[in-house]
Structures are given as C-alpha cells and as structure tokens.
From TrEMBL:
<dbReference type="InterPro" id="IPR000212">
    <property type="entry name" value="DNA_helicase_UvrD/REP"/>
</dbReference>
<comment type="similarity">
    <text>Belongs to the helicase family. UvrD subfamily.</text>
</comment>
<dbReference type="GO" id="GO:0005524">
    <property type="term" value="F:ATP binding"/>
</dbReference>
<feature type="domain" description="UvrD-like helicase ATP-binding">
    <location>
        <begin position="6"/>
        <end position="291"/>
    </location>
</feature>
<dbReference type="Pfam" id="PF13361">
    <property type="entry name" value="UvrD_C"/>
</dbReference>
<dbReference type="GO" id="GO:0005829">
    <property type="term" value="C:cytosol"/>
</dbReference>
<feature type="binding site">
    <location>
        <begin position="27"/>
        <end position="34"/>
    </location>
    <ligand>
        <name>ATP</name>
    </ligand>
</feature>
<keyword id="KW-0238">DNA-binding</keyword>
<dbReference type="GO" id="GO:0000725">
    <property type="term" value="P:recombinational repair"/>
</dbReference>
<dbReference type="Pfam" id="PF00580">
    <property type="entry name" value="UvrD-helicase"/>
</dbReference>
<dbReference type="GO" id="GO:0033202">
    <property type="term" value="C:DNA helicase complex"/>
</dbReference>
<dbReference type="InterPro" id="IPR014016">
    <property type="entry name" value="UvrD-like_ATP-bd"/>
</dbReference>
<dbReference type="Pfam" id="PF21196">
    <property type="entry name" value="PcrA_UvrD_tudor"/>
</dbReference>
<dbReference type="InterPro" id="IPR014017">
    <property type="entry name" value="DNA_helicase_UvrD-like_C"/>
</dbReference>
<dbReference type="GO" id="GO:0016787">
    <property type="term" value="F:hydrolase activity"/>
</dbReference>
<keyword id="KW-0547">Nucleotide-binding</keyword>
<feature type="domain" description="UvrD-like helicase C-terminal">
    <location>
        <begin position="292"/>
        <end position="573"/>
    </location>
</feature>
Amino acid sequence: MEEYIAELNDAQRAPVLQIDGPMIVIAGAGSGKTRVLTYRIAYLMHKGVDSFNILSLTFTNKAAREMKKRIASIVGPSEAKNLWMGTFHSIFAKILRFEADKLGYPSNFTIYDTQDSQRLIASIIKEMGLDKDIYKYKQVYSRISSYKNSLITVKAYFQNADLVEADAMAKRPRMGEIYEHYVDRCFKAGAMDFDDLLLKTNELLNRFPEVLAKYQNRFRYILVDEYQDTNHSQYLIVRALSDKFQNICVVGDDAQSIYAFRGANINNILNFQKDYDNVQQYRLEQNYRSTKNIVEAANSIIDKNKTKLDKVVWTANNDGPKIIVNRLITDGDEGRFVASSIFENQMQHQLGNGKFAILYRTNAQSRAIEDALRKRDIKYRIYGGLSFYQRKEIKDVLAYLRLVINPKDEEALKRVINYPARGIGGTTVDKLVVAANHYDRSIFEVIENLDRINLKINSGTKTRLENFITMIKSFQVTNETSDAFILAEVVAKKTGLLQELKKDGTPEGIARIENIEELLNGIRDFVEGQKEVADVRGSLAEFLEDVALATDLDQDTGDDDRVALMTIHLAKGLEFPYVYIVGMEEDLFPSGMSMNTRSELEEERRLFYVALTRAEKQAYLTYTQSRYRWGKLVDAEPSRFIEEIDEQYLEYMTPVDGYRYKPLIDSDIFGEVDKSKLRLKKPVTGAPPLAHKPTEEQLRKLRKLRPVTDGTTGENTTNLFDGDLIAGIAVEHMRFGRGKILKIEGVGQDRKAEILFEKGGMKKLLLRFAKLKII
Ligand code: ATP
Ligand code: MG
C-alpha cells in the first residue's frame, strides 16, 4: 500500500488517509480529485473496511468501471468485487428492485428511457385534446422532470400556488393534470422513468425508517465524484444515507458545474460545510493533466466568472504549445481543417486515433466533422446522439423483451403491437387505451379480457389481438426455461422482425439486421459474463436494466483506436492529449439560449473551462464565418470566450497586417473558396486579463515552480509567415532530425518546404505544422 500512497502528493494524501468523518475536496480540473477517491477506497479497504460497506457514486458507469479496475490492481480483484460503484441511477435502480413492493411496484418494473417518457406524454396530450403547439411534449417532459428532481410530487404541485400560477401564465394551465396522468400511467405500466429512480428512492428512505436504517448501516462510507453536478433529489439521498455515520467524502469543482439546466444545484457544494458537523476541507492545487499554457489559459477564462470559489490551479508540466485558434469559412472547411490537423499531428508525433477528441456544444455539429474524418479515413466514434440502444430496430427487439418481463409496459406494447404489421390499426389501439384508462388496467390486461368488455372491435382484429398475447405468453414460457440469449433469438425470429428487414433488402435494412445480430451478441456476452460470476442463468431482467441505464460512454470498450467525438457535457472528467473545440461562435457557444442572464452565461463559461481542461498537450479552437442553423446560412461571430482568454496563450493561425485574423484559405485541402464571402475582423485590443490573483504565498509557490520568462522562450521555431525560411538553410525537425531546405512553395497556410533530411531522406512538409528549428 505504501508504494501507492507515494503516488499521491501531500495535498492528495491527506483526504485519502483521513478515514472517518465528513470531508470535501474542492479543486480545479485535472488536480487528481478522481484519483483521490480511487485511492481512498483502496486505503479504506486496506485499513479493514469491508468493501460491502462502501458506496461510491460516479458520473458515468464507465468512470466507475475504471475506478474499480484501478482499485482491483491495488487491493486485488476479489476484494474489489463487492464494491457498490456506479451512477446514482444504476445504484438506486438496484436498490429499488429489492424494495419495489414497498412502493407498490413490481420488482421487475421497467425503466422508461427519455423517448418512452416523451412518447407517453405526447399521447396523453393528444388524449386530453390539447393543442400540441402549446403543450409541446418535450417541454412538458422537462417541466415534469424538473418537478421530480425537486421532489415536487403531483400533490405538492397542486398545493403550490406559485407553480400552478406560473404554468397558467405560460398558457399551460393543464400542466398539473398532464403530470398527474403521466404519473398514473407510469405506475399502471409498472414503469419508472429516470427521475423516478431518484424520486422513489427518496420516497423509500423517507417513508420507511427501517429501510433507511438498513442502507445507512450498509453504506458506512460514501464517496461522491463530480459533486458539483448533483441535483436536489440526489443531494437528499446522499444526505439521508450518510446521516448516521457521517463518513462522507465528496469531491468536485464549482468551476465545472455544467448541469444547472437539468437541475444540478451548485449550492450543494457551497453549503456542504453547513450540512455536517466538523467538515474537513481539502484543496488540491497542482494540475497533473495539462501543459502550463492550457492550465493558465483556463484560469484566465474562469476568472471572468463572478460566482466562484477562489482557487489556485498551477502545474509543474511544460509550457507546451500555445492554443491554436483558426477561423474557417464554413462548417465543411472546419471539418476538413480538423481532419487534416489530426492527420498532420499523427504523422508528426506518431499517434493513434485515440489520442484525439473533438468537442462541440451541440450534437448536430458532428455531421460536418464526420464527413471530413471519413474522407480522410480516420476512424472515429460518436458518443451521445443516437446511441446503439436507441436505434429503432434495437428498440423494437427490446420492446418485445420488455413485454416478456413486464406485460403491463404500455410504451413497449404500443411500439410493437402492430410491428411487424399484423393488422392491428391505430384506432384499435386508441380504443384499448381508453378502455385501459377506464378500467384502470393495463392494455395487456384489457386484451386478455376482451370477451368481458364491449369494445366494438371486429372479430378479425380480436383474433389478431389474441394471437399477439399468445405469442408474448409463449415467450414468457421460453424465458422461464432458457437464458436471455436464446429467448432473444426466438423473439427476433418468431415475431417476424428479421423477415421484415430481410424483405426490405436496402443497405439500411441490411445494416439493421446487422445491428440486431450485434444486439444478440451483446446479450450472449452478458449471459456468459453472468455465468462466470455465479452459476446462474443470465437473467433477461438484469440485461434490460443495464441497457436502460447504459450511457453512451458506457459502450466504449476502449479496445479500438478511434477519435472521440462528443458534446462538452459528456466530456466531463475525461482527458485527451489533443482536443479540438469546434464551433467557437456566438449563439452557438455560448449558446443563444443561454445568454439571457449572467448566471446562464457563467454556466456556458464553465462549460468552456471544462472543454479546455480536457486537453493534456494541445488545444485547438475553431470557428466559422457562416454556418447553417435551422436550415439557413447565417453569419457567425467568433465566440466571446476566445477573446476572454489571455492573449499570450493563443496563437492565431493566420495573422495579417493590422488585423488579428485572416480567414484560412487552403485551396489544396478545401477546394476553391468564394473570396467575396471573406470578411475581416477588426483587431482586438486591450490589456490581457490577469490570469488570477494569487496570494503572496501562492505567488511564492508559483514562482518556485515556474521560471519567470519574458515570453520569448528562446526556441527559434518557425511561424507561418516567417520569411527566414528560404531554400538553402539548414533546419532541424523534431522527428526527422537535421536537414536542408531545397525549395519553398505555396503561400500562407499552403506554404510547404521540400527538405532533404540527413537520415529521413526527402520530405515535403507543410510549414504551419512542421515546427522547424533553424540551425
Ligand atoms: P477533473 O476535474 O477533470 O475531473 P480530476 O481532478 O478528477 O480532474 P484526475 O482525473 O484524478 O483529476 O487526474 C488528472 C490526471 O492527473 C490523471 O491522468 C491522473 O492520473 C493524473 N494525476 C493525478 N494526481 C497525480 C499525481 N500525484 N502524480 C501523477 N499523476 C497524477
Ligand atoms: Mg475527475
């Protein structure tokens, strides 16, 4: 253990070695917060705490898996096995299954994903005869979600005059009724939505003191990563569970709180001291992740926020290259620039794809980037957007499987009752829904009892409905005797799903069949995995739970080498050597929807801080002059965030006389460009902002670690318009070594040199990437 403790600095060691009591570690990006949690768990176990008594809550399940792996490498795999580690949703879904009966739910309850919830809300709006342009189902869904996360139940909603009034003012006076119907329908379908997993856990812990006591005694040590992004509902759960032993360790960074729009409450971190007695506060200041340029640039940004805790972040790492800023004409050019830059970096530094990440504000931005990466044959993976399990064909198979487990599942039933087509029309389904509401039963039960109710359904349809039910019941029998893989195979075949896609015959249809095969492979892996752990039949219910809670990051098996594309929100906690932040434009980032108030703008700025601090070695910021938004080509302005970075950390790719930027024209890579579209920006002037205002002591520390430079590093590297590079002179290249320039050609971004290297032979290099040293 000592050797592992030695892998921590003094500041990190302190919270690891403090076994008992409440503690909070507040620290900037890359300072080792997650590392502290990981080592702390290992240390607790080393000190004899049973792994069974430790609960650790992470932001993604992938993060939990990684932590577990690291802990296993320290304490041994069998020790680490029993640790309760995962996201709030996955941990409490498991607990709710144990305790479901207390809340009147079946233990096989379904978890509705966002799409299921939204579909249900849309159909409720329709059934109520409301105007769908006023009651937009997505908006209604997020209202309901925020009520739930603030623990506002239907009853509490109606008792809260302010809320009722606010919805009435927003011309949605029937919001509360929709909420009520939605909750009823979920309950009747034996389903919980994502927010219920937290809300119901709170209900469970509040209403049943013996259940609370049980889990308090069980989770004697609780650890929470990314505490700044917990919402009220999560906060209350942590609070309740840790109340008895108060062995609670939370880590976070107020500067990285980026989920306020989803109810995260930054006050949870700010008020932690008030919630527990004798809270130990720890601070970490040294960043191990990034270069000085990146750390200090990030400091200079976050300094613009008024609401923040004072923090120092410094690093002993190298200065590293400056942050490269580039302006492109269109999003297509932006994609091509990023792809070619990745390619150049790979060539220059011998790097695989996995070292690169491209981050954007909104998922829609990925398309142009993807096109460019594909053209260059660079392998990539998109996180977020439509995940594998959200594809239509996959959801269709899963809907059948869900029905097998929980026949009351209304959304699953509606999805597949007539898919593949079996002559059960929309009107019939509507009648079934009305009857189900009337008798307060599930649709499945209504169909089972068709003989006893008069539904005006013709006998042909009735037979078809009964056949459907019989089919599902036959699957249930299969499920009792076989494992999930066999069942899934039977379902794919017997329902006619595969035949339907085969009939289709288009490339898309074939791709869908392949996806279903992939799903079956996934189920087989799951079943095998379960058999390894214990001699049990891989249970379908558990597989479905894993699927329902899988976040997009969780699908990353990590074994293939791809460029990562994702929104900044998803990138929290991750790190990559090279990071491209694209779409640095006003209205896009900061988002046009988040510029109304100072606090919204500050959240966007924190988001930018998160983005930049993902980079270890080099960051790029790109923006375009015009971009398609909502189907229209609109002019774009560079993001204010670029200007907010202290200028000394930036390098503009194409500075031109008196103007700070010149648009990039690279006809080689980008094809012909319509020059009339180019518009030059006025130079930005003014003193560079102070990076931060350190105290005397901090200054001392900083000085000790960072030699004072006058900005000229002494490195005589070329920049783009360096006229010194001419044919005949001797140069040195980082990788190819010494050589002689034979020829210079092209202008601006295009400028290339033909160099004869002593060892590497002839090379043609783009000067803007080559970083040549004159010798
Ligand atoms: P974020 O705020 O982005 O979540 P974090 O504070 O959780 O960052 P970590 O991810 O734990 O930071 O650490 C950042 C990087 O620095 C990781 O690669 C980690 O392995 C490394 N690191 C942390 N502490 C040390 C240390 N004492 N010695 C060497 N490397 C370290
Ligand atoms: Mg972290």
